[in-house]
Design goal:
Length: about 260
């Protein structure tokens, strides 16, 4: 009922303490046309068209490298310096520890470290954006390229601050949720040998049916792994890899005559 009434009775919302960390212009704090505009930008990055291009790289990803790959697809960290890549990783650790902590911005607290981590990450992203602006890629390969193209347009509604906040949010989302989902999936499959057996058989069948055993994964093969998709969905359902999603009531809401939600 809450999700069905999105934008009418309820609205995506975060507490002020989390907004300071995620950024005042983050996707969850913007609504209406701007929210839709940014959502379309993200879909251009991870939608079907992009996924078809990624499919061969997805096949080669190992569990050990999946977190690194997810970050690279959002922002091509391979083009940055090694120091920048390491700084992002270190500061995201501080960021995660303080995201849902008591919001006391006192030196030594988790929240204070979280805010410092965000500041450092934003500085790295700003520098990477400036480097890409000074030396653009010949072909659009990642989100930085897409953002720069949007910023060049005379009629754009995208501001650099909003774009950087979005990059920050996407990087954090892939850093935290991807690795956690993989760990949960491995644990669940270890505890359910029947599911592991069926999953293995589904992928072995793809290999057996190939004319060329050495050929890469095709889009048709990807669409055929229905049990794999069920494993992924069940992992996300049981793992609950997103730390928190908040909604606020826009008006008084009664549910089944027993409960009433009041706007903040």
């Amino acid at each position: 009922m809450v999700f069905q009434q999105e934008g009418h009775l309820f609205q995506l919302w975060y507490p002020d303490s989390m907004t300071k960390v995620l950024g005042k212009q983050n996707l969850g704090s913007l609504h209406g046309y701007m929210h839709k505009y940014l959502k379309n930008m993200v879909q251009n990055l991870v939608g079907h068209a992009s996924l078809k291009k990624m499919i061969l790289e997805v096949e080669s990803v190992t569990t050990r490298h999946i977190e690194k790959w997810a970050n690279q697809e959002t922002v091509e960290l391979r083009t940055a310096t090694a120091d920048s890549s390491e700084n992002l990783r270190e500061n995201f650790d501080d960021f995660m520890m303080g995201l849902v902590s008591i919001p006391l911005a006192i030196p030594g607290t988790a929240h204070h470290k979280c805010l410092k981590g965000r500041k450092k990450v934003m500085k790295v992203l700003k520098n990477m954006l400036e480097e890409r602006r000074a030396k653009p890629n010949e072909a659009n390969t990642d989100f930085f390229d897409y953002v720069l193209e949007e910023l060049k347009k005379d009629d754009t509604i995208l501001a650099e601050e909003i774009a950087l906040d979005l990059m920050f949010l996407l990087l954090f989302a892939s850093f935290e949720t991807t690795s956690l989902a993989v760990i949960v999936a491995i644990k669940l499959l270890t505890d359910n040998p029947r599911a592991l057996k069926e999953l293995t058989e589904e992928h072995e069948k793809i290999l057996r049916d190939r004319e060329n055993p050495m050929s890469g994964l095709t889009w048709k093969e990807y669409k055929s792994i229905t049990f794999t998709f069920q494993v992924i969905n069940e992992t996300l359902r049981l793992g609950n890899v997103v730390p928190a999603l908040f909604r606020k009531a826009l008006k008084d809401v009664k549910f089944k005559g027993n409960y009433q939600l009041t706007p903040l």
